Model the fold of this input.
Amino acid sequence: MKKLLQACRTFNKERDWDQFHTAENLAKSISIEAGELLECFQWSSDYDREALLEELGDVTIYCVMLADLLSVDLEENGLAKLAKAAQKYPVEKARGKSTKYDKL
Done:
């Protein structure tokens, strides 16, 4: 992630785009791009891999940029979230089920 973060910083600095990257704008961009990612599956579970990778890349970049702006370590944050999920979804209750934690 460090290489991607540095590449994002350089890309935006060269274009003087940081001025547009508020937390609100980046959060909106994540949502918009996630919608475009979902569009890859709109009418069928078959998908165009190239289009999917383009949209996944956009979502990833905006998430990295928002985390950077808010001084959030994405790896730490993700690991902390998985630890919380492990508490809510213990293996012995959740294995093979898609049931929400409060219904297990």
